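User:
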Amino acid sequence: MDLLSIGKMARLNNVSEQTLRLYDRIGLLKPYSIDDSTRYRYYSINQSAKLDIIQYMKGLGIPLKDIKRQLESCDISIVEKVLENQKDFIDKKILELNQMRNAVNRSLESYHRYSSSPKEGTVILEYIPQRRIYCYDSKINIYDHGLENYEYILRELRSHIILNRLPTIYFCNVGSILRKDLLESEKFFSTEIFLFIDEDFNADKGIEIIPSAAYACIYCDGFYKEKDYARKLIKHVKDNGYKITGDYICEVVAELPVFPENERNMFIKLQIPIEF
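Assistant: Predicted structure:
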């Protein structure tokens, strides 16, 4: 039988010598023979078939220890089970990557809206398509406290997301809701914060639909400015005889990577759904 040196076996199979040494060390693919005096490894060309299977499974993302277990068992049903598990794992990763891509797209869109937004304090009318949110009730009125308390509420939201196995990638797209009845009486009381979520995301509870509508909107660049600008927006709606048709939305358009006095720097879009 023609025996191949480790270098030739590696070249023929497009793997490195280091890989073959690793496979030998963990008992995944032992050399056909080892020279007693030189300790050189020699392989049979027929071992390429096993190496093909190893590389195929490795290419599917299956860990080497699982590949070794499968090959040692010689049980096709175990191989099928591992492949099914790997398929589920890949499907989960695809979902996570899609969520990550969507989050990146949302962030890019948010920074574009930030760079192209009207002057702070300018009221504009805008049609906004339907949106989906995951809502969390903190039980604490956001407007009774300062930015420090808001940060604690965000920590609660993040913990809630992790506890419920929700994708934390959504955390960058947050907002708060002031319900319609409180908005109309200009009573600033809201305990609810939310995340914008994708159409393909599902949960047992907490999901709401913000319907498509015409919105009166105003932008501001700070947490402490919200109430003043919200009052200005409400006044504009009432002065123009618009009818309020739904809840007030405070959306964080962009988290700016600048931290004056070590505080969160937010660019905010305040929105009231209206009918003319």
